[in-house]
Amino acid sequence: MKYILVTGGVISGIGKGIIASSIGTILKSCGLRVTAIKIDPYINIDAGTFSPYEHGEVFVLNDGGEVDLDLGNYERFLDINLYKDNNITTGKIYQHVINKERHGDYLGKTVQVVPHITDAVQEWVMNQAKVPVDDDRQEPQICVIEARMEPFWLGGTIGDIEGMPFVEAFRQFQFKAKRENFCNIHVSLVPQPNATGEQKTKPTQNSVRALRGLGLSPDLIVCRSAKPIEMAVKEKISMFCHVEPEQVIFIHDVSSTYRVPILLEEQGIIKYFKQRLNLPIDDQPSDLLMKWKKMACRYERLLKVCSIALVGKYTKLSDCYASVFKALEHSALAINYKLDLMYIDSTELEHSTEAENSVKYHQAWHKLCKADGILVPGGFGIRGTEGKLQAISWARSKKKPFLGVCLGMQLAVVEFARNCLNWKDANSTEFDPNTKNPVVIDMPEHNPGDMGGTMRLGKRRTVFKTENSVLRKLYGGETFVEERHRHRYEVNPELTHYFEEKGLKFVGHDTEGNRMEIIELEDHPYFVGVQFHPEFSSRPMKPSPPYLGLLLAATGTLNAYLQRGCKLSP
After folding, report:
1. Which one of the listed residues 406, 430, 483, 485 is annotated catalytic?
2. Structural domain that includes position 555
């Protein structure tokens, strides 16, 4: 097993996840089997109870793991399926060690950070690195580890305290794994102040010095910058950071993340890994990286634009809907359109906003009205739901292509009940526990006293109950699909016949037939709701069918696509 540790310095959020994913993609293109692990130093057991404004979206895996969004990047770039144990947190490690102590595994010894916590980290990494993540179920050969443990962040000492056990664990691990099996890549920022226009290397020098002081020496230094870095800057970093010039890699801001693996490959990273880790590979990448190059070039040449309005409550931070954005982007690219995603705060569509700030209200409605399609994603809580209902009502009545995901589907049912069945107080018990018409109810798994891990999570089977379904055709005529779920509430199965009589069809349900999974509205270009989260399974070269359907309908090409037998035009 070869281990590649990716650390970061200067500031967080400079693209370690994309760089780690891109390195994995390059090595996979050379014919190697690659897995990935993300280390987060917070004490939470997992990301399930985070607000999206804390760390972005919560990504859900096949096994129901609620994890950091970077695991979504790994899955999309590498086309693999990871597990919840591929996301290591301080909480998981300490829980694991404390459980062993309570079990008597330490035979009366004093349990300490060193060696017990650091050993647990190393054992976890070695065990999880062996778990197959490809469809062929073979053991991986390379494990890329992204460690969010920077003790040299800009912003104080919090990173110092919580990340130190992981730094020490990998200081020890590099000797346990042996030099020919362990490589450290350090991602740093090269800022360029507007006042001088000069690219500054001092933050990178300090960052590398701090890393060395903790016992880890970088084999590669990946320098992030807004603009391409000059050769003199590369030579300066090489000299002061004690590495060869070819060990300094530049990654400047690019038009799309698809370009990052290509930039890395162009700077000789395959040749370096082959020599440094004794990899049995050729110096040149395979057809896989050529496909990435073609995809990146195609993305940059797109001229036709399709605009989608995303109506949600976490619109101030784009990472809150990272997988939704990627699923839309994959689908747009598949049909040769450039995506124009307009984020609309659902509260700004509500009548209360019209009274408080009429400018915001009319700007939000202007965005919604000019969009080619409307998407209402998942979410929790009552805030903004009335605005989402307004958007859904507009999409239904104006025959605008619409996709509702999770809460978006539930609200589509609520909106239909209120405006088409004339059940004016229809609601979800999440928002009104005493409603007379509970069209959305909480599930048996829901435990109101415990928030973490009490939802219906992970990959579940959805069975189509009719052949006359747009979504079934988009899925290639399959009798069932398996997609990932994350929800506490579901459509009330006792009331579905009222909706079906009025044209809102429940075309997919779970294997027992009790849980409604897919809705489609008759006599509408594309009005679809899904209880699952198809965005988590979308890949750059395999777009998600529900999202692809939305883009096709929004561009007026859905019928032609279905007539061609669900084949994309060249």
Report:
1. 406
2. 303-438+501-506+521-564
Please check whether residue 478 lies inside any domain of the structure: no
Domain stops at, among 269, 298, 327: 298
Confirm whether 535 is a catalytic residue.
yes
Residue among 38, 58, 41, 60 nearest 49 (CA):
58
What residues form DSSP beta bridges with 506? 519
CA-based nearest residue to 555, from 261, 328, 382: 328
Structure tokens, 22? 């891109």
**Residue (of 103, 214, 478) closest to 111 by Cα position:** 103
Where does residue 129 rank: exposed (0-12), middle (13-18), buried (19+ CB within 10 A)? buried
CB atoms within 10 A of CB 451: 11
Residue 466 lies in a domain: no
> Is 246 considered catalytic here?
no
pLDDT higher than 60, residue 53? yes
471-516 residue pLDDT tens:
999 999 899 999 999 988 999 999 999 999 999 999 999 988 889 9
Q: Collapsing DSSP states into helix, strand and coil, what is residue 26?
A: helix
Tokens linked to 465:
């109950």
- Give the Cα-Cα-Cα angle 520, 521, 525 (nearest 5 degrees): 100
Judge if 49 and 18 occupy the same domain.
yes
- Asked if residue 380 is part of any domain, the answer here is yes
Residues 29 and 111 in one domain: yes
Same domain, 239 and 312: no
Output the domain CATH number for residue 205: 3.40.50.300
Residue 415 lies in a domain: yes
Q: Is the pLDDT of residue 154 over 80?
A: no
Q: φ and ψ at 396, to 5 degrees?
A: -70, -50
Q: What is the mean pLDDT of residues 267-282?
A: 89
Instruction: State the burial class of residue 46 (Cβ atoms within 10 Å of its Cβ: 0-12, 13-18, 19+).
Output: buried
Beta strand 305-312 pairing with 373-376: parallel
Residues 91 and 171 in one domain: yes
Could you tell me the pTM of the whole model? 0.91
CATH label of the domain that carries residue 337: 3.40.50.880
Write the Ramachandran bin of 562: left for phi over 0, alpha for psi from -120 to 50, otherwise beta: alpha
Q: Are the beta carbons of 185 and 5 closer than 8 angstroms?
A: yes
Half-sphere exposure of 22 (CA within 13 A, CB side): 23
Number of domains in the chain: 2
Domain final residue, candidates 265, 298, 331: 298
CA proximity to 323, closest of 484, 555, 489: 484
